[in-house]
Design goal:
The chain has 15 helices and no strands. By secondary structure, the chain is mainly alpha-helical. The longest helix is centred in the N-terminal third of the chain and has 47 residues, at about 1-50. The protein is globular and about 55 Å long. The two termini are about 40 Å apart.
Length: about 450
C-alpha cells in the first residue's frame, strides 16, 4: 500500500520539477526567440508600405539572408548541448572554453559568407525567379545586410554558451534592446533619411552589431571569472566544427525546403510571393515560440545526460512533448482568430490579402504537429544526436521536393504550397517520434 500511494506522489513531484525547469528556461527563451522573427516582421511592415515590388524584393532577399545565417545555427545548438553537458558534469571552466571555440568559429564563418554573398548577390536573386521590378530591391537589401552576418553568427554562438549555462534571461534582455533599436533605426533610415529599402537593411545591420558586442562582453566576463582562455585554439575550433557538421547537414536540408517553397511562391507571381513573405514571417514567429520549449530541452537534456541521469532525461522529454502539443493547439487557435486583423498590418493590396488568408488556415491547423516537431528536435540536439537529425531531415527533404514542385505544375495556389509544407512537418514528426521511442539518443557523460 505504501508503494502504491507514493508512486503517484513521486510522479507528480517529478512533473512539477520538470515544469519549473521548463518554465524557468523557456519563458525568457520565448521572448528572445520571438525577437528574431520580429526583426524581419518589422522590416516587412516598414518596407511593405513602400510598395508591392519592394515587399516582394524583401521576401526573396530575406529568404536568402536567413538561409546564409541559419545554416550555421549549429553554432547555437551544438554549443548549447556541449556546454550543458559540462555544466552537468560540474566543470564550468571547460564549458566556457568550449563556448569560446564556438565564437571564434562563428567569426571565421561570417567572413567567409560575406566573401561569397557580396559578389554573387544578383545571381542568387535571379535563381529565385524574382520579377524584373522586385530584383533590384532584393539585390540591394541582400548586399547591405550581408555585412552584418559575422555579428549575427557571433550572436548565435554566444547565445548557445549562455543557454548551456542555463541562462536564458540575458539573451532576452539583449534581444529586447536589439528589437527596439532595430525598429527605431528602420523607421528613421527608411522614412526619416529617405533611404528606402536600403535604410531597412542598414538598420538591421547596426542593431545586430550592437547585440554581438553585448553578448561578447557577457561571455568574456564569464571567462575571466572562471579562468577560461579567450585565445583561439585551432584544435578546439576544429572540434566545434566537427561536432556541428551533422547539424549543418540537417539545417541545410531544412533551409533548402524553405528556399524551394519561396522559389515556388515567386513563380506564382508578385502577389503570391508577397503573401508568402507575410505568412512565412508569421510561421517563423510561431516556430520560434514553440522552439522556446525546445531550447529549454537542449539545456535540460544536456545537463541531465552530463550528470549521468538518464531517467531524468526521459522524464523531461516526455513532459516537454506534452507542453509542445498544448502550446501548438493554443497558437493554432490564435492564428485562426486573428488572421483577419493580422494581414492588413503588412499590406493594403487586396490581391495579396486574398492569397494569404486561406493559407493561414493551413498554418493554424498544423501547429500541434509543429509543437511535437520542435520539442523532439530540441531534445535530440541536447543529447548530441546530430547524425540522426541529419539523416531524418534529408529524408524529409526528399518527401517535400516533389510535393512542392507539383503545386505550380498542377495549377495550385499558395494554399496548396502550404499544404505541402504541412506534409513536410508531418514527416519530421514521424522520424523524430520513432527516434525518441527507441531510446538510442540517451548517452550519458560530460561528452557524447
Amino acid at each position: 500500500m505504501v508503494a502504491m500511494t507514493q508512486a503517484p506522489a513521486t510522479t507528480k513531484a517529478a512533473r512539477r520539477r520538470h515544469d519549473r525547469e521548463i518554465i524557468t528556461l523557456a519563458v525568457p527563451a520565448f521572448g528572445a526567440l520571438v525577437s528574431e522573427p520580429l526583426f524581419l516582421m518589422v522590416d516587412t511592415a516598414v518596407v511593405g508600405h513602400l510598395g508591392t515590388a519592394q515587399l516582394a524584393g524583401l521576401g526573396v532577399a530575406s529568404a536568402l539572408l536567413v538561409t546564409a545565417v541559419s545554416v550555421f545555427v549549429f553554432l547555437a545548438y551544438a554549443t548549447t548541448a556541449a556546454v550543458a553537458r559540462q555544466v552537468g558534469a560540474g566543470d564550468l571552466r571547460a564549458a566556457i572554453r568550449q563556448g569560446m571555440d564556438g565564437i571564434w568559429l562563428a567569426l571565421l564563418l561570417g567572413v567567409l559568407v560575406i566573401a561569397v554573398v557580396l559578389p554573387t548577390a544578383p545571381s542568387l536573386v535571379a535563381l529565385f525567379g524574382s520579377s524584373d521590378t522586385a530584383a533590384p530591391y532584393a539585390t540591394t537589401y541582400l548586399r547591405i545586410s550581408a555585412l552584418g552576418i559575422p555579428a549575427m553568427l557571433v550572436v548565435l554562438a554566444a547565445t548557445g554558451v549562455l543557454r548551456g549555462l542555463q541562462d536564458t534571461k540575458t539573451p532576452l534582455y539583449v534581444a529586447v534592446v536589439g528589437f527596439f533599436a532595430n525598429g527605431a533605426l528602420n523607421v528613421g533610415l527608411v522614412y526619416g533619411a529617405d533611404l528606402g529599402i536600403a535604410g531597412s537593411a542598414w538598420g538591421t545591420v547596426i542593431a545586430q552589431c550592437g547585440m554581438a558586442v553585448a553578448y561578447l562582453w557577457v561571455v568574456i566576463r564569464g571567462a575571466h571569472k572562471h579562468g577560461a582562455s579567450l585565445r583561439p585554439d585551432a584544435a578546439g575550433i576544429r572540434a566545434s566544427a566537427q561536432a556541428g557538421a551533422p547539424l549543418l547537414i540537417r539545417t541545410l536540408s531544412l533551409r533548402a525546403i524553405l528556399m524551394i517553397a519561396t522559389a515556388v511562391a515567386a513563380r506564382l507571381g508578385d502577389e503570391n510571393i508577397a503573401a508568402h513573405q507575410i505568412i512565412l514571417s508569421l510561421w517563423s514567429l510561431l516556430a520560434f515560440a514553440l522552439d522556446a520549449i525546445a531550447i529549454a530541452g537542449q539545456a535540460i537534456i544536456g545537463r541531465y545526460l552530463g550528470a549521468g541521469d538518464a531517467q531524468g532525461a526521459r522524464e523531461a522529454c516526455r513532459r516537454m512533448v506534452q507542453w509542445g502539443i498544448a502550446t501548438g493547439v493554443v497558437l493554432g487557435l490564435l492564428v485562426i482568430a486573428t488572421r483577419p486583423l493580422f494581414i492588413p498590418l503588412f499590406t493594403g493590396d487586396p490581391a495579396v490579402q486574398e492569397a494569404a488568408l486561406p493559407a493561414l488556415i493551413v498554418v493554424a491547423l498544423a501547429q500541434p504537429i509543429s509543437g511535437i516537431v520542435f520539442v523532439l528536435d530540441g531534445v535530440l540536439m541536447g543529447a548530441g544526436d546530430g547524425p540522426y537529425l541529419a539523416r531524418a531531415m534529408m529524408l524529409t527533404l526528399a518527401v517535400f521536393v516533389p510535393a512542392a514542385l507539383l503545386v505550380p505544375a498542377l495549377g495550385g495556389d499558395l494554399t496548396a504550397l502550404w499544404a505541402a509544407m504541412t506534409l513536410m512537418m508531418a514527416t519530421r514528426m514521424l522520424t523524430l517520434w520513432l527516434r525518441s521511442r527507441s531510446g538510442r539518443w540517451i548517452v550519458t557523460g560530460a561528452t557524447r
